[in-house]
Amino acid sequence: MFSIQRYYESDSKKVTAYARLQPKHNYIYPMKNVLIVHAHPEPKSFCSALKDMAQKSFEEMGWHVYVSDLYDMGFQPVGSAEDFTRREDENYFKYQKEQVNAFQHGLFSSDVKEEMDKFLQADVIVFNFPLWWFGLPAILKGWVDRVFAMGFAYGAGKGVYDNGSFKEKTAWISCTTGGPEMAYGPDGKNGELSTILYPIEHGMLHFVGMTVLPAFVSFAPVRKNDEERQAELMRYADFVKNHAALRPIYKADNQ
């Protein structure tokens, strides 16, 4: 586990806060690290099987794998004053203002800080989830709200998109759907999947500067038999092991 250590660089005009990882133990980790943020309440679901396959595949490649299994952790998705050990303004609560203050003075709650630590350490971030109501499960959206905090991930001097703070990181979505693939095509009733995923891929992952790879989507696994589901898992293993060869859908112009 790692902890955020603030330090400052001063000049005549400003003081800039940074986050730096300081290991608590002298462990030697592999060169590459991945964080899988998983959001499904059933450990035996096919979506959870995708998470397990990603973990296995990364480990076979020699990576160190962090998994934030949000339901298993009992992660609190609601951003509130409880995110901070102390507030700048006790009379009027403005969430983003308190996030900036917490970043600058080390005042995030331990659960938020732990997720930030894992995120900072990761070279690759994977959001693994079932597509619910054309978006993220609420628990994963809450993770984004609380962990991609203003000051830490954007704002307060940090840029976004091509000028984002995390251009060295790569991310992708791994998700399952209830509907078949044809429902998400150009003539599908649900609309094109690229449009549905745009707020996540562009508005969350790339917003903070990350390079975003094409999503891995398993359509309607509940409608597949065991052999077909196993083939999907093997397809995902191949995706993970060859992800470096994929062409990004979003990437900073200067990368």
Q: How is this structure best summarized?
A:
The chain contains seven helices and eight strands. The protein has helices at 46-60, 70-73, 95-105, 110-121, 138-147, 193-206, 226-241; strands spanning 2-10, 15-23, 33-38, 64-69, 124-130, 170-176, 211-212, 216-218. The two termini are 29 Å apart.
Structure description:
By secondary structure, this protein is an alpha/beta fold. It has a single domain, classed as 3-Layer(aba) Sandwich (Rossmann fold), CATH 3.40.50. It is built from seven helices and eight strands. Strands 3, 4, 5, 6, 7 and 8 form a six-stranded parallel sheet that branches. The chain has a two-stranded antiparallel ribbon with strand order 1-2. Helix 5 (138-147) links the parallel strand 5 (124-130) and strand 6 (170-176). Helix 1 (46-60) packs parallel to helix 7 (226-241). The longest helix is centred in the C-terminal third of the chain and has 16 residues, at 226-241. It is globular. It starts with a strand and ends in a 14-residue tail after the last helix.
